[in-house]
Amino acid sequence: MANATPDDRTSSVAQRDAGPAPTDPTARPSNRPGESFIGHANLMSRLTLVSRVFGLLRDKACSYYLGVGTDWSAFWMGFQFPNLFRRIFGEGALNAVFLPVYKRVGRDHGQPAADLLARVVATLLVMMFAVIIILGDAVLVPAIFSPHTLPANRLAAAMIALMLPYSLLICLTAFFATVASAHERFAAQSLAPVIVNILMILGAALPVWLFTSAYPISQRVFWVAGAVLVAGMLQVMLMAVSLRRVGVGIGTSWNWRAAGLRDVLVPMLPMIIGFSAVQLNTFMDSQIAWWLSPDGHGGKMVFLFLGQHVHVPMLAGALGKLSVAQRIYLLPVGVFGVATATAVFPKMSAAAAMGDTAELKRLLQQALRKSLFISVPTTIGMILIAPLLITAIYFGGRVTAGDVARAVWAARWFCAGIWAFELQMILLRVFYALRDVRTPMRVAVAMVALNFTLNLSLVWFMQEGGLAASTSLAAIGQCGLLLFILRRRLGRLGLASLCTMLAKALFCGGIMLLAAGSVDKGLSALSWLSPEHRLLGAWVRLPVTVLVALLAYGVSARLMAMEELQHVPILRWLSRHQDT
Question: How far apart are CA 78 and CA 100, in angstroms?
């Protein structure tokens, strides 16, 4: 197991987390424990961006060969289950509850005791998902082989059953990534998604390359599902190698008396609920998109509900279009939002453990400023470039202009909430650093109920856009409630200066929108970039528009003297010019 070297390393990490005493007036801000999280966040953002590039290539290959119709919607029904578990358990509740306990046990009882705790939790994770997989397949297998099951529903059930084991693999990967982050190792966890992206590309393309394009899509999706399972095993192996390099061995343990185990298990359920609001809302969107479209009713536009004939509000393939829209808004959220929240959480936990409320509020302000400085222009920019981005990635092959238009409609409503999706990740970490798991749980339950109500209200006249708008509105409401509760609990959060920065970011975002929008409109007027040359136009206009947007926002931020500019790797050179 771990030797003295990683124990010493962890001790030094704990000392860095402790930082200078909050009453030390000579402590420079650059030496405070919170400062280093920006470097870690930027590193994770860069590595995640690499994986997202491969994700875009995956989306292009899958949409080109498989389309975004009913068969792809059935695949997405199965693929969303492991992703739901990953976001709730691996990247959500388990990360938030386990990381501070792991570091505390390592500090108080030694690194071997902390690693024992990790093995016990990993064993429990395997046991839990083994039960979920067995029960899930026991329910799904009879439906798959029942002659009364509609073909599309049979395919969706088969995809869920086949990819349920991936839930265990991806959650183990995320859990090992949490342990690695305690040792300040972020590279492997950020690059692990590249594996699944590459294998899914091969799974989508190989059936056509080896056989023929006439090979039914309903059978080709099984190749992609199999590729996902293989990728899950490789991801676990990658994280195991990364942990061994810092002296943490991977294995099983049945020692239920391991130090800190109770502190992990007791708050787990309320933390799962607290972290799952956005994830459950997205999952709910998918279910409604399936059952309120012809896909869930054998291609029929009318179904019987409580003795009444109900006309579905969406066309076939609604879930496929919604999955495209979700991928678009999750692109910046995964690159920036998850990275910032993950990097700042250990620092928040250390400050809360020392009872340093001032430092905790300083970290919160710093994280919110970094998040808003990036997420505000990202929100505006993604709404602008959504048509170009979706066209460049998905159009062609089996994806038509009509498919793109429906996906764009939903994507823009999702993108309107990007800033809220990122902020709520940070705000939740404050509560969990304070060891308050019940407040986020209550807020999450309220937001899930709000989202469900809005879904069933807006879907009838906004179609897929109504589902996306509901999720964004629920995320905005969650941020508002969490901030209100934190203000009452911690006192003034210093948000006045944040409002000034937000106003500047909105102004710079407006300049960016005007500049980039004008350039894109001018390019679209060129005959060789007209709608008749849709794909070529998107590939040319997209990078030019993005470049103009970055420069416009960076120059505007420089002129507005926004200090956050120096923490953005792509635009940092502008802040250096400002200093000179």
Answer: 33
**299 beta partners:** none
479: number of CA atoms within 13 Å, CB side?
17
22 domain residue, yes or no: no
Judgement on whether residues 436 and 338 belong to the same structural domain of the protein: yes
Domain identity same for 521 and 417: no
d(CA 412, CA 339): 23
Let me know the angle formed at the C-alpha of 140 by 134 and 143, rounded to the nearest 5 degrees.
150
Please check whether residue 32 lies inside any domain of the structure.
no
In a domain, 26, yes or no: no
Orientation angle between helical segments 418-433 and 338-353, nearest 10 degrees? 20
Q: Which of 473, 493, 513 is the last residue of a domain?
A: 493
Side-chain half-sphere CA neighbours of 133 within 13 A: 15
Co-location of 183 and 265 in the same domain:
yes
Residue 23 scores a pLDDT above 70:
no
Q: Is the pLDDT of residue 15 over 70?
A: no
Of 443, 475, 493, which residue constitutes the final position of a domain? 493
Scanning 395-494, the segments in alpha helix (DSSP H) are 401-415, 418-433, 438-462, 464-490
Q: Convert the pLDDT of each residue in 152-186 to its tens digit.
A: 889 999 999 999 999 999 988 888 888 887 777 76
Task: Tell me how far apart the terminal alpha carbons of the chain are, to the nearest angstrom.
Answer: 52
* Domain identity same for 453 and 487: yes
CA dist 506 and 516 (Å) reads: 15
Domain that holds residue 550: 497-580
520 and 411 in a common domain: no
Q: Are strands 308-311 and 302-305 parallel, antiparallel or unpaired?
A: antiparallel
Beta-bridged to residue 396, according to DSSP, are 399
pLDDT single digits (tens) 388-444: 999 988 887 788 888 899 999 999 999 999 999 989 888 988 888 888 878 888 898
Number of domains observed in the structure of the chain: 2
Whether 55 and 138 share a structural domain: yes
Q: What is the DSSP string of 144-169?
A: HH-TTS-HHHHHHHHHHHHHHHHHHH
- Residue 483 sits in the same domain as residue 523: no
Q: Are residues 514 and 373 in the same domain?
A: no
Give the whole-angstrom CA distance, residue 262 versus residue 253. Answer: 15
Cα 233 from Cα 245, distance rounded (Å): 19
pLDDT at 533: 58
Residue 382 lies in a domain: yes
Tell me how many degrees the CA angle 28-9-337 measures, rounded to the nearest 5: 60
Query: 428 and 347 in contact (C-beta within 8 Å)?
Result: no
- Tens of pLDDT along 537-579? 888 889 999 999 999 998 998 888 888 777 776 666 666 544 4
